[in-house]
Here is the input.
Amino acid sequence: MTKAVHLSDYAAFTHLVVRTRLTVRLHPGATRVSARIDLAPNPGRPGRHDLRLDGELLRLVSVSLDGTPLSVRPDATGLTLAADLLPEGPFRLETEVEISPQANTALEGLYMSNGMYCTQCEAEGFRRITFYPDRPDVMAPFRVRIESDLPVLLSNGNPVAQGPGWAEWDDPWPKPAYLFALVAGDLVAHPGAFVTASGRKVALNIWVRPGDERKCAYAMDALKRALRWDETAYGREYDLDVFNIVAVDDFNMGAMENKGLNIFNSRYVLALPETATDDDFARIEAIIAHEYFHNWTGNRITCRDWFQLCLKEGLTVFRDQQFTGDMRSAPVKRIEDVMTLRARQFREDNGPLAHAVRPDHYGEINNFYTATVYEKGAEIIGMLKRLVGDADYARALDLYFDRHDGQAVTIEDWLRVFEDTTGRDLAQFRRWYTEAGTPRLRVQEDWRDGTCTLHFEQVNPPTPGQPDKAPKVIPIAVGLLNPNGDEVLPTTTLEMTAQRQSFRFPDLSARPIVSLLRGFSAPVILDRHSSPEERAFLLAHDTDPFNKWEAGRALAKDVLAGMIRDGAQPGPQWLDALARVAQDASLDPAFRALALSLPGEDDMAQTLHDAGVTPDPDNIHAARRRMGDALARHLAPALPRLIDDLAEPGPFTPEARAAGRRSLRLALLRLLSRIDEGARAAQTFHSADNMTEQVGTLGCLLDIGRGQPELAAFQAQWSGDRLVMDKWFSLQILYAAPDRAATVATRLASHAAFDWRNPNRFRAVIGALSAHHAGFHAANGAGYRFVADWLIRLDPLNPQTAARMSTAFETWSRYDRARQALVKAELTRIRSAPGLSRDLGEMTGRMLGLEE
Here is the structure.
């Protein structure tokens, strides 16, 4: 398998790239790429060195040095020019290669999507376009000439010249090869304009296929708001004359931040009220912002090597979370972010795929675009901001931008600006970047003579390759409430630095109710005994919105765990508490909707596993359904009125307040459907004028085993819309009975509209079954076999998507021995597949505990 790359082996590149010029003559099967690269020896690497250029799947046509043709032969991974061939000073290297975009099914490098040429170069796709030092610390200005008879020819930077069949683009800002982009196709623009804070005009365009231009208004609005927010929140202006976005149907990721030419998965651009849900609108807003914010945190300042990926991604995720919080509801956004973190990153940290936010080695870099790098990376930024305070965070960021603009940097560079700004020593804090695993924070409480003392112990569990760990810095936000609900200590951040540490709160008139880890101030698992009465109290009285929600969620998980273990029924404490939340009009409707959602099945499986109980997916599923039924019966008298009160007058708007009301209305409709056999949901489905209600009510019906006429009507209405049809595929699997989920997925995989080569459609079916906890983990192994079959089939064509989808198997060790044996057999079968890619081979090997 792949030889591991180690952080400790880093060395600066032997040469500097002064400027790069490309000429790309497009042809589906025989594109010619001519590269003219001006280089010079790197004074940081004294002596004479060979020049090594990366290159894969390229047919070399010619190569010359300072105009003199050379006779050299590339190997499978690149081209080497011996040191004795190279001048001691600056020189120009010119190459011409031929590639086949139409044969590129991996969607890395230059490929074709329904007649459109497009690129994806992060992390190592540029080496499939031409021979080049394809590493993030080699930065250079690019000038690109594109030749084609297609009407729209785009690349990075500013347009500088064009004529019949050609266009030239110049990007004056030095960038690494992974930020190169090229698009050519029959496209139309949804135009816009923006004036920066300094008065400079910027042309904005969202390029789409003809007919899709009317679906771009919300993405354009989100882009303008992101541009303005970055100016006001971080003082960062855009730096080119034009900013282009292109929507592409075939794309492995969500989007890519190429300098001045962002390329997006079309699902994160195209939206109309009748085709996109509120969740779709929110994701479009967040991803548009995320990719734009990379202009400074990722492009102008990039990462020195791929081990520093967490810096550009963690910081930019944190920034897009701030943006969404400002645009919508910051408390709701925080709850949603923690739900995502726990669902994706905590399970990653708790299994065989655990790795440090900045790993010390990797086999295939594409496998490290993970929740740990992105979501936990963002949590680390948030902790740092909490520790130093808002003012010093702003000062440190200003210094970061001033000091490192135009550079490729490391985590050490990032932390040093905070040390220089604040005078703090962050050596201990740095362990968050270098150690894997989710710390457990154990808490005990003492009350004596008017003093409340909190005793903390942090436990950092062993993870693959890291058996022993030292204590971390953990910011613990805490508040104290009196028994009457009054807050006696507003949110205060405690800084824990030792394995065991205690904090005293004296001069209290009564024993307080402690609100711990407010705002989820650190990505840890809190281990503290709390009674149902205390949790109900915090749900009713806590002033911290996150902890208010957390108390209700913990109460619900306790109830559900009891139902799973011994078949108990929900007691009045939880039911009454949820009834109060459902009917409290003073609370944000989006918050109420989140509070009414039941704990997820995968979440409960992990909770039981952590408690030493082997989870049974069928029992979890059945108990969760009983729980929902009980809540529906308890709220039954109020449901029709609550639903009526939340009806939105006037036309659809995607803004946060209206979306929150729809979210709560659908949550209540799901409960009502368990009582009225879906009558109200069916009525709402047929009268719906927006996709949020149409999909939401269809889900209500499918969830109770009904909705087949509505499902057929949905297909008839939307069969021509590829993105909406992804929902049609997924819904049928997600709401299938556990013993039928794999059968439904198998049937849909044979549907004429199932284009398994398209990543969105592949995820709509295979990803949906993977997300159906009880269906995927069916005792007969049908779910495991189905997913393994499709990963084996996809891997030769698109190893990146196959490897990422394989994480469905990462939690296999927490289940019973029979299921473990079934999963191990499937992972072993995948590994024995002929021509297994290094991407999927590394992932399955790590899940099986093999050395890679």
Notes: The chain has 27 helices and 30 strands.
